[in-house]
């Protein structure tokens, strides 16, 4: 199993500069890649650049960035600029994000998200490899001056259309907080989609919340990251089948996150995460590997474990 590290994944009340501490720890401990997620707090390319300047060797991936907010050229320009400043390979990850972010924060319509994802991924598959002297985009009079950023193209997927886009264009497909059972199902869909377009399937990665020997506050942080998925199709059924139907029903009534965290028992964190002592966590990693996952992108709990130091140390590459 390949391990990478997510410096920032979701909005919470952790310190604004916590992602830099996570990234520095990951670099020092020998992880090969750090993801710089994007949200209302951080611009992913600025954060990736800051991480590159604060670390020594780790490769960088920016995103997932919302395809309804950033056009393909802006994404390539951001990645190439980050690579030029840091001297590191920089990959990009694409996602459709949510209506709450695209419309509620950016004020942009979230229309035809699956189609926009397909258009963006198809364009990026070419633009990410453009050479200096070529047009910045086909037909433009402006020549490209930056070197290609050198990192992989990742597509975040869960639904069938997004999986088809990943199979057709991506180097890596990204899942978010999934169980091993979901990995097995989604892996089969990815392989079938790749076969239909005559491509080798991209590698399969998942962001998974992680907390080794968690403090109570670390566990609460993991549960809070899960709470937002309780009403998402494909997740709600899984949580109900695991015995957490009460929390799912509360989520459907619009209960706030604090109520949902109190309603979720500690065992819920282990359904879609790596939580427990190191032996239990490594056993769960084996479950994911057996299901067909190639890469776990660790989202370490940082409340009660600044910088995710304890978790990242326990799971560091050998």
TrEMBL record:
<dbReference type="InterPro" id="IPR036661">
    <property type="entry name" value="Luciferase-like_sf"/>
</dbReference>
<dbReference type="InterPro" id="IPR011251">
    <property type="entry name" value="Luciferase-like_dom"/>
</dbReference>
<feature type="domain" description="Luciferase-like">
    <location>
        <begin position="5"/>
        <end position="294"/>
    </location>
</feature>
<protein>
    <submittedName>
        <fullName>LLM class F420-dependent oxidoreductase</fullName>
    </submittedName>
</protein>
<keyword id="KW-0560">Oxidoreductase</keyword>
<dbReference type="GO" id="GO:0016705">
    <property type="term" value="F:oxidoreductase activity, acting on paired donors, with incorporation or reduction of molecular oxygen"/>
</dbReference>
<dbReference type="Pfam" id="PF00296">
    <property type="entry name" value="Bac_luciferase"/>
</dbReference>
<dbReference type="InterPro" id="IPR022526">
    <property type="entry name" value="F420_Rv3093c"/>
</dbReference>
<dbReference type="InterPro" id="IPR050564">
    <property type="entry name" value="F420-G6PD/mer"/>
</dbReference>
């Amino acid at each position: 199993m390949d391990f990478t590290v997510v410096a920032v994944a979701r909005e919470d009340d952790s310190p604004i500069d916590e992602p830099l501490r996570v990234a520095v720890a990951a670099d020092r401990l020998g992880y090969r890649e750090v993801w710089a997620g994007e949200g209302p707090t951080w611009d992913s390319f600025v954060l990736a650049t800051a991480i590159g300047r604060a670390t020594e060797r780790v490769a960088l991936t920016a995103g997932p960035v919302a395809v309804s907010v950033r056009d393909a050229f802006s994404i390539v320009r951001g990645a190439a600029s980050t690579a030029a400043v840091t001297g590191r390979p920089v990959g990009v990850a694409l996602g459709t994000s949510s209506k709450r972010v695209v419309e509620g924060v950016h004020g942009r319509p979230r229309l035809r998200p699956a189609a926009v994802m397909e258009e963006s991924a198809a364009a990026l598959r070419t633009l990410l490899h453009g050479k200096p002297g070529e047009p910045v985009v086909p037909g433009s009079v402006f020549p490209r001056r930056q070197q290609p950023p050198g990192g992989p193209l990742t597509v975040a997927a869960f639904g069938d259309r997004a999986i088809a886009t990943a199979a057709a264009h991506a180097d890596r497909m990204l899942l978010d907080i999934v169980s091993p059972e979901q990995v097995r199902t989604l892996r089969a869909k990815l392989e079938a989609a790749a076969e239909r377009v005559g491509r080798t399937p991209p590698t399969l990665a998942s962001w998974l919340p992680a907390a080794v020997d968690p403090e109570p506050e670390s566990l609460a942080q993991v549960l809070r990251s899960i709470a937002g998925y309780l009403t998402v199709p494909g997740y709600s059924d899984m949580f109900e089948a695991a015995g957490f139907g009460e929390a799912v029903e509360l989520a459907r009534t619009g209960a706030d996150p604090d109520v949902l965290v109190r309603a979720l028992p500690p065992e819920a964190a282990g359904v879609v995460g790596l939580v427990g002592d190191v032996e239990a966590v490594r056993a769960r990693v084996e479950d994911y590997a057996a299901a067909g996952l190639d890469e776990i992108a660790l989202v370490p709990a940082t409340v009660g474990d600044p910088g995710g130091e304890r978790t990242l140390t326990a799971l560091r590459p050998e």
